[in-house]
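Collaboration report, partner site 2.

Our partner group contributed sequences for two proteins of shared interest, and the home lab folded both. The records are reproduced in the order in which they were received, starting with the first partner submission.
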Amino acid sequence: MDMIIDFPGGSRVDAHFGAFTVRTDQPAHGGGDESAPTPFSTFLASIGTCVAVTLQGFCAKRDLATADLSVRQVMHYDAEGLLASVELEVALPPDFPEKYRDAALRAAETCSVKKAIAAAPSFSVKAR
């Protein structure tokens, strides 16, 4: 899948793929209007939402409710301000069956975004 990234004005940058557009902006102190999340915040959100949708699928296959299920994501940064680690805490509802607890956490580990980051893909930037 290709994405087309364009510049709709100001500090906004949008990514277009398929029928979707992901809008990003910068905070006011960075020259933006704060009309959308920053690209880095969008990246971070993709981790937790991927874990959540993986858990959602796990629960759907077992006919388990997800109403009281949630994922808390905490980012830890090093002394230089770079992302050092991401902690994902799955809050299981009180009535979540104990027999599925460990399996649900193992399922969360299979999130494709997390796996892609762990694989450390290479990047190249070139002009055309």
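Second partner submission, folded after the first:
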Amino acid sequence: MIVFDVVNRDGQTQSVEVPEGINLSLMEVLKASEYPVLATCGGMALCATCQVEVVKGIEKLRSPSDSELDMLDQLPKLTPITRLACQIKIGEELEGAVFLLKQEI
């Protein structure tokens, strides 16, 4: 199992466990875990409604793609640790990571 933490907009932290080898994005796992993630574009990196801050573990993630960087550049409050959850694939590099939900609904 891969275990990482999610901090919701109220500051509460919850651990999320997902099986290794699943072919899902962080956005899909968050939605399936009933976190309030809009993801209006369906994971195409076109809307930024699934943005998160990678509070811990960003150094283990793959670099953002050009399409993700283009969308991130349009955000009014971009930080060096802001990423789109739809572009983060579930894998062992997420073990121990901490994600902060950012997009308001």
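Feedback sent to the partner group on the second submission included the following. The longest strand covers residues 2-7. The mean pLDDT is 93.
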